[in-house]
Amino acid sequence: MTEPLRQGATIGILGGGQLGRMLSVAASRLGLRCHVYEPGEAPPAGHVADAVTTAPYEDTAALEAFAASVDVITYEFENIPTAALDTLQALCPIRPGREALRVSQDRLTEKTFLTDLGLKTAPFADITDAESLTQALEIIGTPSILKTRRFGYDGKGQARINTPEEAAAAIEEMRGAPAILEGFVEFSCEISVIAARSADGAVACFDPGENIHSEGILRTTTVPARLSQAQRTDAVLLAAKILNALNYVGVMGVELFVTPQGLLVNEIAPRVHNSGHWTQNGCTIDQFEQHIRAVANWPLGDGSRFADVQMENLIGDDLDKLPELATEADTAIHLYGKDAVKAGRKMGHVNRIIRG
Amino acid sequence: MTEPLRQGATIGILGGGQLGRMLSVAASRLGLRCHVYEPGEAPPAGHVADAVTTAPYEDTAALEAFAASVDVITYEFENIPTAALDTLQALCPIRPGREALRVSQDRLTEKTFLTDLGLKTAPFADITDAESLTQALEIIGTPSILKTRRFGYDGKGQARINTPEEAAAAIEEMRGAPAILEGFVEFSCEISVIAARSADGAVACFDPGENIHSEGILRTTTVPARLSQAQRTDAVLLAAKILNALNYVGVMGVELFVTPQGLLVNEIAPRVHNSGHWTQNGCTIDQFEQHIRAVANWPLGDGSRFADVQMENLIGDDLDKLPELATEADTAIHLYGKDAVKAGRKMGHVNRIIRG
């Protein structure tokens, strides 16, 4: 695939959540259709996609039919089973590519990749059993955090270890899954760089945003982040280094800790990212369109920021604030159309333009 | 219907063209689904709507099933057959209401409504036959323009009369349809006010845009329009007067001529309007979301403009400029996903942010 996708072409999206939904909407602006593949019933992206396949990732026939119906495949989450990717890749290009998935699907592989690139991360250690945890705790110390190497999100699959005595309980929580111990780092703030790379190797980054988490879930992202110009430049160069090393095509979310020792990479996500939602109302081309442009072989768009923005996630009952939010000036509402409100479930977000 | 529509509710849209498409996308931002009713095969709005009914407006069973499946009905064009509206209205509220459709479906009714409101229009006369045209030409003079009273758009169903001798040919072109003769007016420019009114009677207007037409088709809209502050105020008050008189709910496009004698109303369209597309990249809430908010009983959004914008339609072969447009900074592309490129067919538009 070297020509830009033209009107009427179809992008396949693995995953039918809110990210797939907003990717579909962005693709429609470029005249492209989307076909969503999602095991769960009634996915939010299905309301706006041209087609939906409801099937598990183990259904080879469904995967093959899906791949045959689309021009390129992308995804809204990184934990796609490897066998499914093998089936799809034989029939259709997948962007971002397999290397990005391989690296980001496993926290240990990811941290090793980053340190091999010369980037800094929090101290970490491979944990295979109680003994390796004991040894790692002697080096990394407490408090620290034990995480499953794979399949964690929004604080799930994580156990905080405040004292060495809590090690046994923490490893219990991993339920035998391979794990990684991460040291805590002192940081003044957490920021995200939403970076994009096109098929021809051009890289563009949105301005870094500053993130506030609570209970392991992102609450707000504010742009601009409180950074010096030097830090801003470092953040962008560092993100570009990661994308280039992976020969990446698409948008990536790069979470960084701002520390006295410089920027530490917390996590990379090979997809559009919650901390980039502010771009919908702060930029002419948002992260979703930027990702679609990259995946569809278009030139990257102009991601320059024209406003200060605070993105706030609407989680669970936050939806009750809707009547009030709808009357706020300078506030754009983005809801995901999810049927059931559950505690901790991301139901939507708002982007507030901050007037100087 | 007095409560705001909640997540998962469905808006029915009559018409599956680009306006229905962009309305669907806007509705998705508010967590709402759309069901498009369109007689033509493969409508552009179908790529992004949750459901599509393909059936003619004469299919009562299809209309009834459609009405039963949605919470409120709106439309992207005004020329919906009256019988279809009767069927739908018995089952589901239609917004904007019937009065706006009755007035705007007929150029003579519309002009009479406007002048009864005390607003100025170009001189006009009811034309039923050759004799009434001869009489009208004596008063209105030439050049003037003969138009069918109903079903005209983008310059179709119109005949320009440069001299009285051309009257016979012009009336021939009407093919027996009731017609209206309109005098030409000297104007310095044509502007549009995109005005919105909510169910509780609140009115909000976007900044007037300045339109350039060619061959009867809108080419560009630029905001801000070249208007004095007094003209700007007049334009907004005049639009509000129209919406209030119709007890209107939704967005309306009001085209005005700027003349030495003040503002003349050229045309009203009871729907989102091509000349309001700039709001997608110049405002936090665009005309499409504003319309959905009104129709869904939400409070109107903040339509304040944060940038100067020029909207340019991509018509027919203009699509060939796409590779270049995609590399322009500050330019947002909006394509409609139409399969066939035809001369005079609106294929998309671009919004260019104008930096000071």
Short overview:
Chains A, B: Catalyzes the ATP-dependent conversion of 5-aminoimidazole ribonucleotide (AIR) and HCO(3)(-) to N5-carboxyaminoimidazole ribonucleotide (N5-CAIR). Two copies of one chain form a homodimer. With 356 residues, chain A is of the alpha+beta class.
Label the CATH architecture of the largest domain in chain A: 2-Layer Sandwich
Number of helical runs of chain A?
A: 11
Q: At the first level of CATH, what is the class of the largest domain in chain A?
A: Alpha Beta
Give the total of domains of chain A: 3
Helix content of chain A: 25-40%
Q: Beta-sheet strand percentage of chain A? A: 25-35%
Name the chain pair with the biggest interface and residue counts per chain: A-B, 48 and 48 residues
Give the SSE string of chain A.
Answer: EHEEHEHHHEEHEEHEEEEEHEEHHEHEE
Largest sheet of chain A: 10 strands, mixed
Cα-atom radius of gyration of chain A: 20 Å
* Quaternary state of the chains: homodimer
List the uncertain runs of chain A. Answer: none
* Secondary structure: number of strands of chain A: 18
| CATH superfamily heading of the largest domain in chain A | ATP-grasp fold, B domain
* Mean pLDDT over the full residue set of chain A: 95
Give the CA-CA distance, first to last residue of chain A.
Answer: 45 Å
Q: Find the structural class of chain A using helix and strand composition.
A: alpha+beta
Here the CATH topology of the largest domain in chain A equals D-amino Acid Aminotransferase, Chain A, domain 1
Q: What's the overall geometry of chain A?
A: globular
GO biological process, one term (chains A, B): 'de novo' IMP biosynthetic process
Protein name (chains A, B): N5-carboxyaminoimidazole ribonucleotide synthase
Family (chains A, B): Belongs to the PurK/PurT family.
Enzyme class (chains A, B): ligase
